[in-house]
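Section 3.1: Structural characterization of target chains.
Under the original work plan, the team committed to producing a structural model for every single-chain target entering the pipeline before any wet-lab resources were allocated. The record below documents one such target. The sequence was received from the expression subgroup and is listed exactly as submitted; it comprises 222 residues.
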Amino acid sequence: MGISEPKSTVFPHSRLSPADKKPVAVARLLLEFAVPTRGDVALSLFSRKHFTQHEIRKLFEKALFGLFQYHLCPLGWKVSSGEWLYWNAQQVPKELPSMQTDIILRSPVGEISVIDAKFTHMLIENRVGNESLKSPHLYQLYAYLRSQEILGEEWKTAKGIMLYASSGRNQQDETISFLLDGHPVAFASVGLETSIREFRQKVLHLVAPNLEFPQEEPHDIP
């Protein structure tokens, strides 16, 4: 199924309550990036449905998947969603948790990026009052990357990205990058209440900093 060029959609921000802004911001992303929905009916549901945190996160994940498909696949990238990873373990007990990724990108030269989408704050205050990355998120990314190294050289240098959506008073753009046992890792927070053009450029630069993407397209909104 191909992805047709999306049409711009304007949402009435001034009439939205704070509780509505997050799902509507994600709905806006979904429509602008041409992620399959159920047409006009889907949009009306966003204003009536109470979204759980998990549902909003899945919508954000779909928006990212649509963005990567639309812009990277024509350049030879492979984009997968919901791919399962397996532990390098013997006599695996049934109690061992499974690992299902949000998005995996494979560049034309075989470089791998594992992306996990989060709809929460990137940083948390630790016991001494300093801001810190969330330990479970760091451990999750670490497990994804290290457990697959046995599969080949491309996994030994695979990149891990935790991508956080931020909105409202907590909206901010921040990236923390470092090497973790030989793996490039990035924890990045991207604001939703911005233009689609800006959001797209920030996310694409995060996963493919050496590629040039158009600064403006006909379906962009200001």
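The first strand starts at residue 78 and ends at 81.
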